[in-house]
Design a protein that fits this description.
homodimer; 240 residues; alpha+beta; Jelly Rolls; Arc Repressor Mutant, subunit A; 2 domains; 7-stranded antiparallel β-sheet; 3-stranded antiparallel β-sheet; 10 strands; DNA-binding
DNA sequence: AAAGGCAGTTGATACAGATCAATTCGGCGG
DNA sequence: CCGCCGAATTGATCTGTATCAACTGCCTTT
């Protein structure tokens, strides 16, 4: 973990300015906000915080991808989400994180001391409303993911994952046919409630079907419509 | 759906006063709040709102149990949660519910028009903070449920469900050995990502093990410690 | 360029839980 | 009290995914 420029950075030219929590702040507030956060960088594989830890900070992801996960005592892991630039981490009840977070590849976050951040939010209901909005959006995504985990087949899971991941990257300015997958197969398996072998086989199957092409560090989405059809729970491609 | 006493009720003697959103309101605010909500009753099996519906109201559960679920186009169902007295429903993004809600047995809710409720919240940050707290608590529960759906065996799922359900009922003043199950086996199956037959077999198994006794409308928890052991992911009962 | 190592793929087999099919139980109307 | 009907249970069998095991390919180190 490396801290850079404790205060030498300005929110006004931050990359995630438009999408993150801070989108609800005006210029005067932003200037104050500058002094609250500090940029911190984590190397690939480093743990940013652990499930049992007492929450002392909020984190705003600026660059990179993180895996958010929970472990069972015997080592089984469920990844509850991947965090991308603009995502806010650290909201919790009872003062403890409810999942762990690792950097996948290098990650830069904007870290806020919980107390200072709390004071800042105190008399800014619009910021609180923005935080609430983010929490509810996440809750909604969590519900969608429950459907996937509880009721979808391996093929549907993988196709859905690829499409959703692509959509998130597109909304951050990514291309729509090349889909980078910075996480490894095990991460994908633990996200989808599958084993690494099943994920691998399903990728291969989708490739054989001409839906995707497996390339270094990701996939190329050859047939998005077909992928949608495989992801959806419709009985067949053309039934209505 | 039956509306009773549009305004003849008082928040100050509401059953869920202490646990619901309204716990953050003072007496003066409560008096104002009286005029915002109206009590509405739903019969067993009635749908309170559907996933596609535009959100026009918030609902505060006063009595009864609701199932919250999402459907796939081909009819597969995932129950994302059960709502009990004190729970707040209707928080959403983009103005649409993100799941459907049915009454299991008779249900009474306190219904608020979204616009009026929104105005009331507007200049009451403490209420907003309370709502945020509830949203984050639900998000945390959602994460726990993802672990269950993605990484736990049928036996662990059922044992975990029974313990968690009991805990919720206890916190509402229920007894701790008799656990009523107002939902049917299909509901439990759709909540746990299992089939009805697997749920039934697992209940029978737990009964054979002497962990529970299956009784009308619920179970009796004979051996809570053993149930905990089955729910947890430890390798064995006594492993170090 | 060879060697080592880890991530990913592929194959063979096992098994938990799904599916299909009766059967039993319990509440309710006549 | 009897017969009906939906919910729950139980049984037999099937199957999707896990598990166990080997192999491949790519990057890294020397």
């Amino acid at each position: 973990m490396v801290m850079i420029e404790p205060n030498g950075h300005f929110c006004s030219d931050c990359a995630v300015r438009a999408t993150a929590v801070c989108s609800s702040l005006d210029l005067a507030e932003l200037r104050e906000f500058d002094h609250l956060g500090r940029r911190v960088t984590f190397a690939a594989g480093e743990t940013v915080f652990s499930e049992e830890d007492i929450t002392t900070s909020f984190y705003n992801v600026l660059e990179g991808v993180m895996r958010l996960y929970k472990l069972l005592p015997d080592g089984r892991r469920q990844i509850v989400g991947f965090a991308l630039p603009g995502d806010l981490l650290g909201m919790n009840i009872a003062g403890r994180h409810n999942f762990s977070a690792d950097a996948i590849g290098a990650v830069t976050v904007c870290q806020f001391a919980k107390t200072a951040f709390g004071r800042f939010v105190e008399d800014r209901p619009h910021l609180l409303r923005r935080i609430n909005e983010l929490a509810i959006r996440e809750l909604s995504q969590a519900h969608d993911h429950m459907v996937l985990l509880g009721r979808r087949s391996a093929e549907e899971k993988v196709a859905t994952f690829l499409l959703n991941w692509r959509e998130r990257l597109v909304s951050l300015g990514g291309s729509s046919d090349m889909v980078p997958l910075p996480m490894n197969r095990q991460d994908i398996a633990d996200y989808l409630g599958l084993t690494i072998e099943t994920v691998s086989r399903t990728f291969t199957k989708l490739e054989r079907l001409g839906v995707i092409e497996i390339i270094q560090g990701g996939i190329s989405l050859l047939d998005p419509a077909r992928a949608e059809a495989l992801a959806a729970a419709s009985r067949s491609y053309f039934d209505f």
